Every structure is written in structure tokens, then in C-alpha cells.
Amino acid sequence: MTTVSESERRVATDFLYREARLADEARYAEWEALWTEDGVYWVPATTDPDADPDRQISHIYDNRHRIATRVKLLLTGFRSSQEPVSPMRRLISNIEVEATMAPSSWSRTSSWSRCPSRPSARRTCGRVA
Questions:
Q1: Torsions phi, psi for 88 (to 5 deg)
Q2: 6-128 is classed in which CATH architecture?
Q3: 109, β-bridge pairs
Q4: CA-to-CA distance for 101 and 105, rounded, in angstroms?
Q5: Could you tell me which of 112, 116, 121, 122 has the fewest CB atoms within 10 Å of its CB?
Q6: How many helices (H) and strands (E) does the chain have?
Q7: CA angle, 59 as apex, 85 and 54 as ends, to 5°?
Q8: What gap in Å lies between CA 62 and CA 64, rounded to an integer?
């Protein structure tokens, strides 16, 4: 892993916390605005640390264009997976920040657990890379 400074690590960590909070609060336009043109939102469907999204199935593997499409669909109000929608809270942990070849660019990996506030709702866990 390439070393990043403590201030770079803090910026990357703050991004992950902000991204999770905005998604939890259904502030999708603000959530979308966090993503750069080269941003990728990847949730692997495996725990294999060597997973390759181009060769293995993923829960989510969205580029910037697909992120915008996902947000447009969410904002229609017709794309919820539950009715009524359960309030959710993403719990972020195991954050790793690695420098990439591009200047001021990082790869962020974290584990997360999405916990519903309704006892009867199902809990899901995953990893955002």
C-alpha cells in the first residue's frame, strides 16, 4: 500500500462518512455531487480481496454516468425497494486509503453495515471500494 499523509487520510475518511450520511438521509442530489467524473462506486459480491469487477459479479459497479442515472431514478419516487422505506444508517469501519498514480487521487476501501431502524427489516453488510 502506498503511504498517504495523515491529512490526506482524513480527507478520504471524511468523504466516506459524508457519502454515507447523505445516502442515509436520502439527500441524493448532494450525494451525487460528491462524485468526480472518474469516480467509481463499487460494492463487490464477494469477500475475495483480489476481486476484479470486470471479471466477477458485483452488487454495484457504477461509473459517474451510472451514478447520475441511479440518482435520477431514486428522485422519481418510484424506485424504493421497500414501502414504506425504512430509515437506514450506514456504519463505516475498516477504512483503508491508498494513493493512486494520479496526483491528489486516492483509492478508498471500507466495510459497512446498513442497519434498519425497524426490528423486522433485514440488515445488509458490504464493502465499498
A1: -120, 160
A2: Roll (3.10)
A3: 96
A4: 7
A5: 122
A6: 3, 5
A7: 155
A8: 7
3-state secondary structure of 120: coil
In percent, the amount of the chain with pLDDT more than 90 equals: 20
Cβ contacts of residue 12 below 8 Å, gap of 6+? Answer: 4, 95, 97, 106, 108
* Backbone dihedral angles phi then psi of residue 9, each to the nearest 5 degrees: -60, -40
Residue for grid cell 424504493: 80
pLDDT for residue 99 is more than 50: yes
The contacts of residue 83 (CB under 8 Å, 6+ apart) are none
Q: The whole model's pTM is what?
A: 0.69
Instruction: Identify the band that residue 126 occupies on the pLDDT scale cut at 50, 70 and 90.
Output: very low
The predicted-structure confidence for 8-20, as pLDDT tens digits, reads as follows 888 888 988 998 8
Query: What residue type is assigned to position 119 of the chain?
Result: P
Which strand ranges, in their side-by-side order, compose the sheet holding 88-99? 88-99, 106-116, 124-128
